[in-house]
Amino acid sequence: MLRLLRHVCFFGKFLGITPSLQQLNFEPSVSKIYSLLLIVFFTSAVAVSLFYKTSEYFQYLPIKMIVFVCTDFSLYFCNLLLLVAVPFCKRKQWKQLIKNCIQIEKTLTINDTNSVTCRAIFLVTVVLYWIITISDMNLWCQQDDKDYVQKYVIDNVQYHSLLFFYLLLFILLRMFVVYYKTLRHEFALKIWQFKNTTSTVIEKFSTFSNIQYIWSTLQNTIDTFNDIFSWSIFLSILHISLLTIGYLDYALTTVDEAKFVVTSVSFAALFFICIIILTLMCDMVLKEATKSVRMAIKLEEEFFKDNPEIDKLVFVIKSNVPEFCIARFFCIDRGTIFRISSNIITFIIVMLQFKN
């Protein structure tokens, strides 16, 4: 699992999102300077883009103008936060996250056969993104829009960075799923050994000490993940929701520009699907952790209810259930998909009513 993350981080350093794993113990001054240059570049390019888009904004109804302005600003601030987070603010947390993952993989026997699938998902997503982007660029060129470069090229760069950020999240969440799943299997094996071996009481209890340690380390890893990425995830969800609202409204109210409608809806759908996949990955982590919690409770209730050592084990597991809290606004689970979708539909209905 770490090998795949190492490849992602290697490319991530060029986008200023993450340092490579080999740079964890080096001075961060170079990466800070590089990130600062990227911030200046993005800020300048976005300012130029907004200047050229100003005339378009005032052609919309006020509510639609607000949606598109917020869409552009949320994309910029999301990318800005990605450039600032690890190099400037969260470097220690990032090092702690990687060290925890290394320690977990040294302790557990990780057997993940889906790394090829992860690479395939990434390649397919990137290819789809560039197919849609190039198709959209071609349509704009056919319209002979002289300001296309000034308006939208920086958006393409920002969306590519956002797509890479989603890949990083996908890899990390996939690692968490594998860790919790492997730990659950290890826990089940320890329970079986506890019930069926004739070891001394002390030897039996010592079999669970490793489970407690890994479980606590995993909880610390999830907390660190939330600390680093929660605001970036929040802004990206906000942006994709606004993007989906704007493009769906455009699709529902446009009749004579079918090709633009197809590319716009496809673009929004691609990123919305990414949000859905990441949400489901978070839910898979919670599901695997919940299975271990149920095993611990069953162990306590059926066999060792009054045993202090088992009580301690169950307490550690029950009090360290993972949660993906996004900027303290909400926690991600499977229901997040429904809540986001319902809010998008509600807002689109409101926009359509304003037009009528």
Automatic annotation (TrEMBL):
InterPro entries: 7TM_chemorcpt. It is found in: Cell membrane. It is a multi-pass membrane protein. Belongs to the insect chemoreceptor superfamily. Gustatory receptor (GR) family. Pfam families: 7tm_7. Keywords: Cell membrane, Membrane, Receptor, Transducer, Transmembrane, Transmembrane helix. One of its GO terms (cellular component) is dendrite. The chain crosses the membrane at residues 33-53, 65-89, 120-140, 160-180, 228-248, 260-286, 336-354. This is Gustatory receptor. The keyword rRNA processing does not apply. It comes from Zophobas morio. The keyword Protein biosynthesis does not apply. Gustatory receptor which mediates acceptance or avoidance behavior, depending on its substrates. One of its GO terms (biological process) is signal transduction.
